[in-house]
Amino acid sequence: MIEIHLYGDLRRYIGQEDPRQDAVALLPYRPGTTVAEALRDLGVPLEEARHIFINGLYDPEGMRRALREGDRIGVFPQNMTMPHIRLFAPRATREG
Description:
The protein is α+β, with helices and mostly antiparallel strands.
């Protein structure tokens, strides 16, 4: 199973607009599926998604990463600025 956590305006794509509630989609693991493909499956327009975290690590190339069983993905929208990520967050260094 894959967990995709949507934040900000992206929450609406899974019907959870209440900011007091988690907006989490659970998807079955399919080998070879990328973050971008999983977001498309949820109906999230890729041009609206910008900041991708994989298992807690910011990954600027996250859209192209192949998912692994048990991955937790965090997706923040284009319109949410996060300058501290660019300055301080480590790049994801997972294999694959």
